Amino acid sequence: MRLPSPTRTRSALAVLVLFLLLVGGVMSMRSVPLAEPSTVSGLPHSAQSWIVDHRQSLLPASTSQPAIVVYYRTDHRPLSGSAVAAVRDSVPLLVAAVASAPPRSVSAPLGGVVVSANHRVAVVALAVASAPSANAVADRVLALRRALTHLHPRGVATAVTGGPAFTADLGQVFNGADTTLLIATVIVVAALLILTYRSPVLWLVPLLVIGLADQVAAVVAGHLAPHLGIRLDGSSTGIAEVLVFGAGTDYALLLIARYRDELHHEADRFRAMRRALRRTAESVLASATTVTVALALMLSASVMSVRALGFASGIGIVVAAAFALFALPAALVVVGRGAFWPLVPRVGDRRESGRVFARVGAGVARRPRVVLLGALVALALAATLGLGTRTGLSTTQRFTARPESVVGQEILASAFPAGSSEPVVVVTPTGSLARTESVVRRVPGVVAVSRGPASATWSELDLTTDAPPSSPASYALIDGLRQRLATAVPRAAVGGDSATNLDLAHYLNRDALRLSVLILLVVVAVLLVLLRSIIAPLLLLGTVLASYFAAMGVAWFVFQHLLGYPALDTGTAFYAFLFLVALGVDYNIFLTARAKEESERLGPAAGMLSALRSTGGVITSAGVLLASVFLVLGVLPLITLTQVGVIVCTGVLLDTLLVRTVLVPALALALGRWFWWPHKTGADRTQAPSIP
Predict the structure, then answer these.
(1) Could you report the per-residue pLDDT of 187-216, keeping only the tens digit for each?
(2) What digits encode the pLDDT tens for the residues 440-464?
């Protein structure tokens, strides 16, 4: 037996030390704060809602935002006259209690106390001072809520809603979100690695390496983003963190599985690692390149949140691949074979592996066309579950929980016109104010119009509508307003929260259509280079698309019938498409790259069956792990992240257990050598292929 050279051990240790120094240097950099949630600022400057927001900042009263305090009885009975009087008496005390904190965070009521026609709800709008950051605004709302716990009439409940309140509640979602996601992700990854390796030691090595990669990626992305004009937020960094752990662990599983196989044939662990790395690096690089380029395309999006997600996730994939191909091999050879204890691989072990997938392959090989048809029918039936999918959630529907701002808005909408909690804002040239007001009053659905702040240049009109905020009816009303004003007062712009969501949906849909086509072209290009075939890449892309539509169907059934979600959020389908196409093709890359290698020796049919047998276990483990990691997004109380997590989880499981295990082998066996056309396999050069 050849003993490992001390020189090679020292070289591996040097690589580890180099990476640890790199990690230490990166982590010593000052952290850059994340951007606070702001949909308007993330839109292009051509969007009318962005124009309105900008013009509002120029108006004299732009130093305050209305926070709406809702008073109601929990038994939904009308407020008595004495209760309404007590509410009016408590408002000055409330303002005094909160405004004492500098710099006068809450000031006098805007319009006094208003009681609904049925006397069940009373509201007062308080002016919350604007602040340079959303966190400061949130602090003032929280101070207002704390004061209300002591300063409200007995028997009367309160809820604070309105723009500042939603800002505060959204901020609460992302406060500590990175820590929550990290802990949940680490627990899931650790548990699945222990089940995969059945070793008390081995799971620690990839987990520590990928954990360090995640921290390095987060710091690097945070420092580079401002130089590129990108504002990272909690949503983009959270998804990027999940992606780093999922993809990085997949790379680690692939490398460790090949390394363990080589240890059964090679006494020198360094030589075994070189062989394993040489045979897996191409697949890992192809996978990482596909995902990274697809994510890089998102930098051309018009919406900031899409650019931020693409940037943070792309940096994460690059760092994860680098750590998996350099730091992980060094760590494994330094630890030695003992890391696999108690199932230590020994030279000459005749350990049978892949028996389950060998039987699956044999079953597919007996009747590949029948299996192919059955798999396609199953995917088609799953996709039909998504017929009638609806898209678009209102502000109150985007939380999986019911924060106070949502409760307040629902109560407010139950007693006042549906759109009173979120007025539609029109900013028009001051000289055209009267004409603009005349036009908007004649628009069906506009219940009331009030004049807001004004300057010599611009004037604001606040429109109360009968349409629920961010609903199809409100979007139709806003479109009608814009069309009429475009003719009557061309310089007028329509904004507000509902208009912002409408503009966001418009630009996201436009970005999604263009980027989806580009991402598909990237995937095909990478597969063409890797497989040196024309037919196989096109078929593999078709299988990934089939799994995406099937996943959307299954997920919509879950959302509608099990979770009770009324619709998909804007952008959910695109984000799910991005991750499923970019990540779903990974497993086909791992399988077909090995099949191409085996086909050189065994021929196309036997090569595919050999690849399925040898990679089935590790790819299935990787798929289950990635699916579980994305499901972790559901720990945050935002429907968008939960929906993305469920769709990607479903799609990855379908891709791993059905598409890669059954559909792709059936395609390859049914087509034979034509699957690899025009590339010639070993059997093509000698004799016709045969199916064992």
Answers:
(1) 888 888 888 778 888 888 888 888 889 888
(2) 999 999 998 988 889 999 999 989 8
**The CATH number of the domain covering residues in 415-500:** 3.30.70.120
Whole-structure pTM value: 0.82
Query: What's the angle, vertex CA 337, arms to CA 334 and CA 342, rounded to 5?
Result: 135
> What Å distances lie between residue 651 and 378, 566, 579, 583, 645, CA to CA?
14, 21, 9, 10, 10
The separation between CA 483 and the C-alpha centre of its own chain, rounded to angstroms, equals 34
HSE, side-chain direction, 13 A CA sphere, residue 280? 29
For the domain spanning 63-173, the CATH number is: 3.30.70.1320
Q: How far apart are CA 580 and CA 413, in angstroms?
A: 39
364, 371 in Cβ contact below 8 A?
yes
Radius of gyration of the chain, Cα coordinates, nearest whole angstrom: 30
| Comma-separated ranges of CATH 3.30.70.1320 domains in the chain | 63-173
Residues of the chain with CATH 1.20.1640.10: 1-30+176-346, 532-692
CATH (residue range 1-30+176-346):
1.20.1640.10
Higher pLDDT, 65 or 221: 221
The structure tokens listed for 22 are 């790199």
Residue 309, CB-side half-sphere exposure with 13 Å CA sphere? 24
The neighbour count for residue 117, using CB atoms within 10 Å, is 8
Superfamily of domain 532-692: Multidrug efflux transporter AcrB transmembrane domain (1.20.1640.10)
Cis peptide before 6 (omega within 30 of 0): no
Residue type, 378: A
Q: Residue 41: which residues within 8 A CB-CB, separation 6 or more?
A: 50, 53, 231, 304
Residue 569: strand, helix, or coil: coil
* Helix 664-671 vs helix 604-631: crossing angle, to nearest 10: 160
CA angle centred on 541, ends 538 and 543, rounded to 5°: 115
The span from the CA of 183 to the CA of 692, in Å, is: 47
